[in-house]
Amino acid sequence: MDTVRDYLAQKADIVIYDTPPMAVVTDAIILGSRMDGTLMVVRLGVTSKEAGKRAKELLKTSRSRVLGVVVNDATHRAGYGSYYYYYYYSDSENENDSAS
Description:
Elements lengths: L1 H10 L15 H6 L5 E6 L5 H13 L4 E7 L19 H7 L2
Parallel strand pairs: 1-2
């Protein structure tokens, strides 16, 4: 795995690895500890708050750097506000890491 990671890092500025859900297999935890950062993907209305917190803790335990969260299935509602929605997750530890 390290050979593939190193090869791809030489060929591209950003490499994204898509893994199965953490509840199914441990690939994401193992891979996350070997990457520069990890984005968690959660499905709105499907992923429970407890499951999201547990996934974050598993990633932290494995020394993965959690960069943020991507939320799927967020729908736009008519009315006041922007034409698009975004969600930004930040952990105070990671904010300090990004400053350096």
